[in-house]
Amino acid sequence: MNKKSEKLAIDNHKNQFSKDLDILDIDSLYIKYLGKKGIINSLFSKIKNLSNELKKDIAKDLNNFKSTVESEIKNKKASSGNAPKEHFDLTYPVKATSVGNLHPITIVTRELYQFFHYYGFSVQGGPEIEDDFHNFEMLGVPKDHPARELQDTLYIMEPEVLLRTQTSSIESRVLKNTQPPIRFVTGGKAFRNETGSKSNGAIFHQFQGVCIDENITMANLKWIFSKSLKFILGEDTKIRFRAKYYPEVEPGLSPDIECTFCKGDGCEICKYRGWIEIAGGGMIHPNTLEKANIDSDKYSGFAFGWGLDRIAMQRFKIRDIRLLINGNLIYK
Ligand SMILES: [Zn+2]
């Protein structure tokens, strides 16, 4: 092998490369010329067989050819819009795509917070594991009170530590530490020892509100019930009020809405009544105010609680309450 023939071989490849540059795509060019078994590597591997005086010249020529090939491929990439980006790293973790939607309970809770925030209510929270005092005693339900049987309690340590049966326990905590005017709402899970059915579950969600100030009456409560129910379920929602007993209020009332599934005709969701009991409330008992060191002669207030699960079911046409906390997507 002499210098002339070796030089010629490189020139041939150079000519071929300028033709290939127009014909082949970038990957094929790279593999053919710069790949492990590509032309340039194979030419370099032949250098070791040359005489010392030829080695230097041919190596220089080959290096020039290699640089040309590299820069031409880079130019071709840049002009085709595939220019390598700076710090391009194939091993870099991909950005996670967000999937799914907010839970129906979260949606209605946030909308209610928004509504009540507009009317000057703050948002409060409290523990799901409660003590007997905040869950019952403070709310006018002493240990021997029959109302306890309405709320079949799940105990962590009987008789003092329990899973809260109602979010009114948060009301106990806030009233104890605050003086009027008081306006707040709260939302969260409550727990009762219930057998699961289409309309009842052991875990359910409540939304609670309290307003204590001078001259607060049932009229204020009825107004806020009507306004907020229509805000969540639509202006054409039909509402009726019934007197109802709740141990922590006096007097108590319950707003029902016309069942959105059957429009009042009666179906299994509304237990063929045409109406759904969706919330309850009333005037806070003066004894509860006094226990919280609030002057019941000067101040009055209302408290109310919503069943968020039922609101979400009516709003999103969910026919079974268990779907709200069940992870099985094929469960019907
Ligand atoms: Zn119905």
TrEMBL record:
<keyword id="KW-0547">Nucleotide-binding</keyword>
<dbReference type="InterPro" id="IPR006195">
    <property type="entry name" value="aa-tRNA-synth_II"/>
</dbReference>
<dbReference type="GO" id="GO:0004826">
    <property type="term" value="F:phenylalanine-tRNA ligase activity"/>
</dbReference>
<keyword id="KW-0648">Protein biosynthesis</keyword>
<dbReference type="GO" id="GO:0006432">
    <property type="term" value="P:phenylalanyl-tRNA aminoacylation"/>
</dbReference>
<keyword id="KW-0436">Ligase</keyword>
<keyword id="KW-0030">Aminoacyl-tRNA synthetase</keyword>
<dbReference type="GO" id="GO:0005737">
    <property type="term" value="C:cytoplasm"/>
</dbReference>
<feature type="domain" description="Aminoacyl-transfer RNA synthetases class-II family profile">
    <location>
        <begin position="108"/>
        <end position="313"/>
    </location>
</feature>
<dbReference type="Pfam" id="PF02912">
    <property type="entry name" value="Phe_tRNA-synt_N"/>
</dbReference>
<dbReference type="InterPro" id="IPR045864">
    <property type="entry name" value="aa-tRNA-synth_II/BPL/LPL"/>
</dbReference>
<dbReference type="InterPro" id="IPR002319">
    <property type="entry name" value="Phenylalanyl-tRNA_Synthase"/>
</dbReference>
<dbReference type="InterPro" id="IPR010978">
    <property type="entry name" value="tRNA-bd_arm"/>
</dbReference>
<dbReference type="GO" id="GO:0005524">
    <property type="term" value="F:ATP binding"/>
</dbReference>
<protein>
    <recommendedName>
        <fullName>phenylalanine--tRNA ligase</fullName>
        <ecNumber>6.1.1.20</ecNumber>
    </recommendedName>
</protein>
<keyword id="KW-0067">ATP-binding</keyword>
<dbReference type="GO" id="GO:0000049">
    <property type="term" value="F:tRNA binding"/>
</dbReference>
<dbReference type="InterPro" id="IPR004188">
    <property type="entry name" value="Phe-tRNA_ligase_II_N"/>
</dbReference>
<dbReference type="Pfam" id="PF01409">
    <property type="entry name" value="tRNA-synt_2d"/>
</dbReference>
